[in-house]
Amino acid sequence: MKILAVSDEIVNRIYTLTSSGHFQDVELIIGCGDMPYEYLEYLVTVLNVPMFYVPGNHDPRFDLNFDQAHAEGGINLDLKTVRHKKFLIGGFGGSIRYRPDGINQYSQFEAYL
Q1: Which of 23, 41, 91, 109 has its CA 20 to 30 A from that of 48?
Q2: pLDDT at 24
Q3: Are 49 and 25 contacting, i.e. CB atoms less than 8 angstroms apart?
């Protein structure tokens, strides 16, 4: 299975490559955090394959009622597992806590719970 995994940084060349059919054989998109949700939405729309993602520590707190807080067309996999074909995929978004008021940041103890 070919997976397109993206994280942290927009690669503008992907816009050109997707329109020219470069990613036709991709079967799954994984968003590994800190990607603008509009970018993830573009990928899932153009490639028309399932997408799973987790929020990064620079993303807004997940909220289904707030359009800007999730990627439309994808499944937020934070603290969940899902079976996709023969693969079991799990997600844990965010990062280790480095600020007391940080969004999507967890201490070791909070992550354990």
Answers
A1: 91
A2: 92
A3: no
Which of 42, 53, 48, 46 lies closest to 6 in space, CA to CA? 53
Q: CB under 8 Å to 111, separation ≥6 — which residues?
A: 92, 96
- DSSP letter assigned to residue 62: P
Give this prediction's pTM.
0.85
Q: 80: alpha, beta or left, given left = phi > 0 and alpha = psi -120 to 50?
A: beta
Backbone angles phi, psi at 37, to 5 degrees: -65, -30
CA distance 93 to 59: 10
Distance of CA 65 to the CA centre of its chain: 18
Distances (CA, A) of 22 to 25, 35, 47, 84, 98: 8, 21, 10, 23, 39
Beta bridge partners of 88: 83
Per-residue pLDDT tens over the stretch 83-92: 999 999 999 9
CA distance 30 to 36: 13
Q: Kind of pairing, strands 105-106 and 95-96?
A: parallel
